[in-house]
Amino acid sequence: MSEEYKWFLKDAVVDTGMCTLCGACAAVCPYEIIEFDENGPKLKEECYRNGEGACKDVCQRVMTDAARISMNVFNFKSLPPTSIGQYQKIVSARATAPSIAENGQDGGAVTALLGYCFDNGLIDGAVTTAGFTKPDSCIITSKEELMDTQGAKYSAVPVMAALRQSKDELKNVAMVGVPCQTYGTRRTQFFTGLNVHPMEVGMNGEKADIPNIPYTIGLFCMENFNYEKLSEHMKSIGIDLDKIKKYAIRLDVMIVTTDDGEIEISLKDIADCVWDGCRICRDAVSKVADISAGHVGSSTGWTTLIARNDKGLELLEAAEKAGYIETVDDVDISMIEDFAAIKMRKFNKELAKRLDDGKKVNFYWVRDYPGVRPEANGTNFVKIKTNSGIVQHDYIARVAELAEKYGDGSLELTSRKSVEIQGIKGENVDSLMADVYGSGLKTIGMGYANACPGMDYCPEGLVTTKDLANELTMQFAQKLTPHKMKIGVAGCPNSCVRAESNDIGIVGQLRPKIDTEKCTGCGRCSELCKLNAISVISGKAVIDRDLCINCGWCVRGCPHEAAVEDERGYSLWIGGNDARRPTNGVLLKAFCTKEEIPALIDKVGKTFVKYRTKPGKERLGNIIALVGEGQFISEVLKE
């Protein structure tokens, strides 16, 4: 019996039957000590970090984190989850080259797309699965090798592990895999942008040098099989594994094409061969891929292609324009939705069974939804958005109803004016979120605009705040959240929301001036000024601009209407935070209009990203201090 080493994933994922064999753990291990057998991954020697390093960080069965991954995949335009995921275009496609169309799976569209990428220098490698007799992950480096890997294999294979086989000269490598492998790819690809920490470096400087992944093509998948069990079953019914040329699953049968013809196998007969981790998978259509591909929804001999983002759409259209594929719009989307629904029903049945049997379940999917986060005791909370603190009574009543129905009945009002439903069990998250969206409620993560009541509610407010905060939330909540950039909007220099302590602080300003013809020198303004910025000299009020903070108290309190408004607007502060390494905000612009603010915030964000080197470890104020206030501000304000 081989020695077993301490490993977080063994206890939390592998031994609990959650592992999908995606291979991400092996791809990122700097020591290359993870290997695979018929039971899944295992350590072949002791881990320097006791099995709690990058492998744990990228495992999509610990947490998919799809809500934040989707911000990157969809260029900060991600939408709440749906049954078949977010997309821009769905078509039926097939390769125009007869050799590819005839030998490929459902018309060979995926092979044709990769062929286009190779021919046009978009990739110099692709990771996929090869071999029917004994499927295995591989990395191909030419269009010619591509032809040898056509067709679905339906065996669980650690595809991502092949990334470690990539040669130094391979700079851009496409990934082709089933849904779990696309999540593993995305967690690896965007790891450093998920507000975590840099990728693991070994004790002697070892690194997992993974090439750039320009395209991720995800395959439709209902389930995959344990190769050892499946091959034994096939041999038991007389199938010669060396003669297998193609697999296909249609409805409830697997069709195995061999040199001697086609053999149909009922999926019921091979149900025991399904890989354990596949039984509790919930994505049938690779929702976070650039392009998803499968036979469902299209006619025989055609592939359904779902271009999910700009990159995927551009590749699909370019390949068609260049003559590599032909497409038609005749896709039955309802069939894809039914296909996805079947997988969810299987997932829910398996989840219920595991919970009834008392088995440990990792609720890896809860962060597929924006605003849902795990709690310390194993339950979850969901953050419900308000209009910067303002809600209608019926809105908050619905929140309360859901808290009683799905949570522990408690609500928390957060410092950034959202409402959190507490104590939600993992098995209830899907139902809760269906009710949240069905009730017209909205969820939100961190990093959005917080505002005081402003002039609409507060007598001391100089400007409106709630509308501005809500507008900025819609424009920047997703875009700035990965960098944890918080916005505070104060209606006056009292700054009850501590705007200057936010990454972006916006403060209402009223610049006063004195009408000397009306001023009697009574001194009322001087008495009201809390900064001693007004003095009466030679019978007239005089404002010291170095002391004045533009609060407008003198204007409100002057009995002769001699202190009047000169201009009204906002001051903009940047770089404040009260986090681990607190920083004080600095004044970016003393006066600006409401219309100027979005463009200035956008410039601040871009300048921050330009100089940031350690995602997850640097807030805006830290970068301003590193670059220098003058340099940073000049770059932001430069036309």
From TrEMBL:
It comes from Methanococcoides alaskense. This is Coenzyme F420 hydrogenase subunit beta. GO terms for molecular function: 4 iron, 4 sulfur cluster binding; coenzyme F420 hydrogenase activity; heme binding; metal ion binding; oxidoreductase activity, acting on CH or CH2 groups, with an iron-sulfur protein as acceptor. Its EC number is 1.12.98.1. InterPro entries: 4Fe4S_Fe-S-bd, 4Fe4S_Fe_S_CS, Co_F420_Hydgase/DH_bsu_N, FRHB/FDHB/HCAR-like, FrhB_FdhB_C, NiRdtase/SiRdtase_haem-b_fer, Nit/Sulf_reduc_fer-like_dom_sf, NO2/SO3_Rdtase_4Fe4S_dom. Gene3D superfamilies: 3.30.70.20, Sulfite Reductase Hemoprotein, domain 1 (3.30.413.10), Sulfite Reductase Hemoprotein,Domain 2 (3.90.480.10). Keywords: 4Fe-4S, Heme, Iron, Iron-sulfur, Metal-binding, Oxidoreductase. Residues 10-39, 510-539, 540-568 form the 4Fe-4S ferredoxin-type domain. PANTHER family: 7-HYDROXYMETHYL CHLOROPHYLL A REDUCTASE, CHLOROPLASTIC (PTHR31332).
